[in-house]
Structure formats: structure tokens, C-alpha cells
Specification:
Layout lengths: L10 E9 L5 E10 L1 H38 L4 E4 L4 E4 L1 H5 L2
Length: about 100
């Protein structure tokens, strides 16, 4: 819809009829709510979700390559989380110790 200043924006439009006792239409009531900001936020969210799915797929491909390279090299890897002292070992590390 075109706003009073001439700018085109998304609007949510709701209408309701007013009828007399016989059911005849007397007049219409309506409201228009500018939802442009909401539409832009929704589009940004969809874009972000798409980017996250793309990055997750990329990471999964890279993880597959790392596992394959470790198998070929007959070596593994590990990482440690220092605050918790939690150590994570790759399967190849366990296999070749």
C-alpha cells in the first residue's frame, strides 16, 4: 500500500461491515496497520536461517574430510576444554593408540 508520504510499504488491512437489524449494509469499518518493519525482520530471519543451514552443511562436509584424512594418515586428534578438563578424542586416536 502507498503511505501518505508516497512510500510503498507493507500494510495489514482488516475490515468489518456494520449491518442494521435487517442485515443491510450500513457502513464499513476498517484499519490499516503498517507492518513493513515486521516484514523486513521476517525476511532477515529467513535469510539468517538459510545462511546457518549452509554453514552447517559446510561444516559437516569439512568434518567428513577431516575424518577421512585422519583415517588415511592413521592418526587422530583431540581437544581439551581447560575450565572443565573435558578431553574429546577422535575415533582414530582411540584406534591407533
Amino acid at each position: 500500500m502507498r503511505r501518505a508520504d508516497g512510500q510503498y510499504r507493507w500494510f495489514l488491512v482488516r475490515t468489518a461491515p456494520l449491518r442494521d437489524e435487517q442485515g443491510n449494509l450500513v457502513k464499513w469499518y476498517g484499519v490499516c496497520v503498517d507492518i513493513e518493519d515486521r516484514k523486513r525482520a521476517e525476511e532477515a530471519l529467513r535469510s539468517t536461517e538459510s545462511e546457518q543451514r549452509h554453514i552447517a552443511a559446510q561444516l559437516e562436509r569439512e568434518r567428513g574430510r577431516l575424518v577421512e584424512a585422519q583415517e588415511v594418515a592413521k592418526m587422530g586428534s583431540w581437544e581439551a576444554e581447560l575450565p572443565s578438563l573435558n578431553v574429546i578424542w577422535s575415533e582414530q586416536t582411540h584406534t591407533h593408540l
